[in-house]
Prior knowledge:
By secondary structure, the protein is α+β, with helices and mostly antiparallel strands. It has one domain (2-49). The chain has one helix spanning 2-29, and strands at 30-32, 38-41, 47-49. Strands 1-2-3 form a three-stranded antiparallel sheet. The termini are far apart.
Amino acid sequence: MRHSALRGFGLAIFVACxxxxxxxxxxxxxxxxxxxxxxxxxxIGLIWRRCAEGMSWKVKT
Length: 61
């Protein structure tokens, strides 16, 4: 039982640290278009819309 609790705690710490690093990695890897409606993954060249058709992105990046 004790080992299971320690594993769970260790996993929680790992996940928290991993998610803390994600925004910095995303800023380097991705770029928003000048109008803010599309995002480009600079590593693989994938481009996607931020919102579904008929909707628009209103928040500053």
